[in-house]
Amino acid sequence: MSQVIPEKPLRVVVWSTGTIGRHAIVGVDAHPDLELVGVWTSTPEKHGQDAGLLAGLDRELGVRATTDRDELVALRPDCVVHGAMTDDRVFESIADLTELVRDGVNVVSSGPVILLHREGTLPDEMIEAIDEAGRQGNASLHVNGIDPGFANDVLPLVLTSLSQRIDHVVVSEIADYSTYYQPVVMRDLFGFGRPIDGGDAKPLLWEPGILTTAWGPVVRLIAAGLGVTLDEPLVEEVDRRPAPRDTRTVSLDVAEGTMGAVRFRVIGTVDGVPRVTLEHVTRTAPDQVPEWPTPAEGDGCYRIEITGEPCMKLEFTHHGEHGDHNVSGMIVTAQRLINAIPAVVAARPGLVTALDLPLVTGRGLVTGTVAGAKEKR
After folding, report:
1. CB neighbourhood size of 254 (10 A)
2. Which residues contact 169 (CB under 8 A, 6 or more apart)?
3. What is the phi-psi region of residue 288: left when phi exceeds 0, alpha when psi lies from -120 to 50, beta otherwise?
């Protein structure tokens, strides 16, 4: 399938103004094939404020944020860029996204990540409910981002196109999260700053089966892209380590002895042999657990390792022009969704994954061409 180029600018609503949403506002405004027509916020104090100011731009965009869902649906946008928090309300957010699709609005969303792949995690009837809503509204839903997303679905699958034989695909995120601002994720989901054993309740993420729910879709999508049927269930491995000293992050303080770092894997096997592995090495200070994998440069990377013939390793890093890798992590998450909008709008109704979409690029975003392209359209 070739790249999708819209005949006229697509009308877009950005859903949220937080860590992803504010970057999505900037990205939609900058894209020559897109027009920002609305912004949703969950914060009453932001209702009525201009989107440009909420996004940190030095100018107004003439679009006011609203807490009224129906007001935005009534605009009949071509697509919603959904960047609202879903990790702590998975099934409620699935219901929200399904209803948007039923209302005839295409959606690209950063979560819930359980929807990155169609098979193996959710009951078939839940996926069919999304597909049926898509048929009713003639609209599509695509969930992606950077991780889970591009760094461990499209990118590794593209790299495998160079393979003669594939023995094992390992996709990793190796990152210092000290500058990542998301207190709910850091404390409540990961458990950073909380006792490793005893004390308050164990974070949900480390309960058996939850890692498979969250990152299993990535492992299964890679396997599907390679035509491999995995053993069930997937294998989970978790190694949590205490902070060696008091550590301060932008999200929370991590006291010495509380959880400071974690390394986990979700492994897909075939006849008991590991074939596809998702790994995370997550620290709250860059010098923690030095024996674990570290980036070749900087404080964060995505790494793809393919053993077979030939053996290959690819390390992908990013950092913000005016910030670090955690800032740019939000930007690349938003932009993967934004740049996929034309392809998702043109896709068949229902849930679509990275395996269903054509080539997605940063078409129209080369410096010096964006403003002119917007004016011409």
Report:
1. 26
2. 156, 160, 222, 226, 275, 276, 277, 304, 305, 306
3. beta
Question: Would you put residue 69 in left (φ > 0), alpha (ψ -120 to 50) or beta?
Answer: alpha
109: nearest Cα among 329, 362, 320, 340: 340
Residue 371, pLDDT > 60, answer: no
Q: Over pLDDT 90: what percentage of the chain?
A: 84
Average pLDDT, the chain: 94
Q: Is 80 exceeded by the pLDDT of residue 199?
A: no
Quote the pLDDT of residue 374: 60
Interatomic CA distance for residues 303 and 174, integer angstroms: 8
- pLDDT tens track for 156-196: 999 999 999 999 999 999 999 999 988 989 999 999 999 98
Instruction: For 13-24, write each residue's pLDDT tens digit.
Output: 999 999 999 999
Using a pLDDT cut of 70, give the percent of the chain over it: 96
- The Cα–Cα gap between 219 and 209 comes to 14
How far is residue 107 CA from its own chain's centroid? Answer: 14
What are 109-125's pLDDT values in tens digits? 999 999 999 988 899 99
Q: For the chain, how are helix, strand and coil distributed in percent, rounded to 5?
A: 30, 25, 45
H/E stretch holding 165: strand 165-176
Structure tokens at 226: 């390679």
Q: Which residues on adjacent β-strands are paired with residue 165?
A: 309
Read off φ and ψ for residue 128, nearest 5 degrees.
-65, -35
Within 10 angstroms of residue 216's Cβ, the number of other Cβ atoms is 27
Chain centre distance of CA 231: 26
Residue whose C-alpha is closest to residue 268's, from 239, 226, 303, 325: 226
> Helix 124-137 to helix 90-102 angle, to the nearest 10 degrees?
30
225 three-state secondary structure? helix
Asked if the bond preceding 310 is cis, omega within 30° of 0, the reply is yes
